[in-house]
């Protein structure tokens, strides 16, 4: 059974002084995947850019670029899309997968569907470095011969219970070591932590950026992290492929999630980044996100 969502992501900037030029890059448009199809998508930028382009990046994500060369003191970027999601967890057991040690051996022996892809997500990346501290933290979940998925879900549960979700406690520049020390952060931090733990054991893990359904159906709980773009992780399970896990909510990713981008960490796929030319500073920034289920 599938669900269709309308996703809106609006970002409003106001500046202290006039900006002479703005250059932006966006990861705001949902990917087309076997279990997810983007039916409509558009990005509206105000002021109207003199240059607009779209491309696919190295990871296969949809990337939009704009350049504004006229003076302005405010900038709005509004993305809207309609996405059909048919993702289910049929056939996925929370206690399944091979023993995790065998999964590591399979990756090292290149006995996975795409060995190059597996290898690149097992390496350190700009915001996620492997370390003995993360390996030690993961070891409590990754006991000898434990099935991979069961071990990953145990790690997810421990991140959820050991770390406090506290918006504003970190920023995109907060080192992961600081998050690990202070035991609080946001979904981006928890995804990075889970990835660091898995990579420190030799398991490929990637960062996933996307959205969560804003208002759940009756009887279903509202999840943490729905008021902005969300983040989680994927782990490579040999003979199965990539399995998405959300440590912020301690669950496998299901049909309530919309994927926008994959990367090694947040630095590969920020929703919006760029450069402005001005002698002032950003006076205010407001981001509004909505993911609403609509008739298919």
Describe the structure.
With 296 residues, this protein is an alpha+beta fold. The chain has two domains: 3-86 and 270-294, Immunoglobulin-like (Sandwich); 100-254, C8orf32 fold (Roll), CATH 3.10.620. The chain is built from six helices and 15 strands. The chain has helices at 100-108, 115-120, 132-139, 148-162, 176-182, 187-200, and strands at 3-19, 21-26, 36-46, 51-56, 62-68, 72-85, 164-165, 184-185, 205-212, 230-237, 241-246, 251-252, 257-263, 272-277, 282-294. The chain has a five-stranded antiparallel beta sheet with strand order 12-11-10-9-13, with helices on one face. β11 and β12 form a beta hairpin. The radius of gyration is 20 Å and the shape is globular. The mean pLDDT is 93.
The structural domain count equals: 2
Average predicted confidence as pLDDT: 93
Low-confidence stretches: none
Helix % is 10-25%
The name CATH uses for the topology of the largest domain is C8orf32 fold
Percentage of residues in strands: 35-45%
SSE sequence, one letter per element: EEEEEEHHHHEHEHEEEEEEE
Oligomeric organization of the protein chains: single chain
Number of strands: 15
Q: Give the spatial strand order of the biggest sheet.
A: 12-11-10-9-13
Count of alpha and pi helical runs: 6
Radius of gyration: 20 Å
CATH class of the largest domain: Alpha Beta
Structural class given helices, strands, pairing?
alpha+beta
CATH architecture of the largest domain: Roll
Shape: globular
Distance between the termini: 11 Å
Characterize the biggest β-sheet: 5 strands, antiparallel
């Amino acid at each position: 059974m599938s669900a269709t969502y309308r996703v809106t992501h609006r970002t409003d900037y106001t500046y202290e002084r006039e900006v002479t030029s703005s250059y932006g890059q966006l990861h705001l448009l949902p990917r087309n995947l076997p279990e997810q199809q983007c039916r409509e998508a558009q990005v509206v930028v105000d002021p109207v850019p003199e240059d607009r382009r779209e491309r696919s990046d190295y990871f296969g994500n949809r990337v939009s670029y704009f350049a504004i060369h006229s003076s302005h003191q405010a900038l709005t970027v509004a993305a809207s899309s309609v996405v059909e999601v048919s993702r289910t967890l049929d056939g996925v057991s929370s206690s399944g997968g091979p023993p995790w040690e065998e999964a590591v051996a399979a990756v090292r022996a290149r006995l996975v569907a795409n060995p190059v892809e597996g290898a690149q997500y097992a390496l350190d990346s700009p915001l996620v470095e492997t370390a003995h501290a993360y390996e030690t933290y993961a070891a409590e979940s990754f006991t000898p011969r434990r099935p991979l998925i069961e071990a990953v879900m145990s790690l997810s549960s421990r991140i959820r219970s050991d770390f406090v979700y506290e918006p504003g406690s970190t920023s995109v520049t907060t080192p992961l070591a600081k998050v690990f020390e202070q035991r609080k952060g946001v979904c981006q931090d928890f995804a990075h932590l889970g990835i660091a733990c898995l990579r420190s054991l030799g398991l490929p893990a990637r960062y996933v950026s996307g959205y969560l359904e804003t208002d759940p159906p009756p009887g279903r709980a509202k999840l943490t992290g729905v008021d902005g773009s969300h983040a989680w992780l994927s782990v490579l399970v040999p003979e199965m492929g990539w399995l998405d896990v959300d440590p912020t909510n301690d669950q496998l990713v299901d049909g309530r999630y919309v994927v926008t981008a994959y990367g090694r960490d947040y630095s590969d796929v920020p929703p919006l980044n760029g450069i402005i030319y001005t002698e002032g500073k950003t006076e205010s920034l407001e981001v509004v996100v909505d993911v609403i289920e609509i008739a298919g």
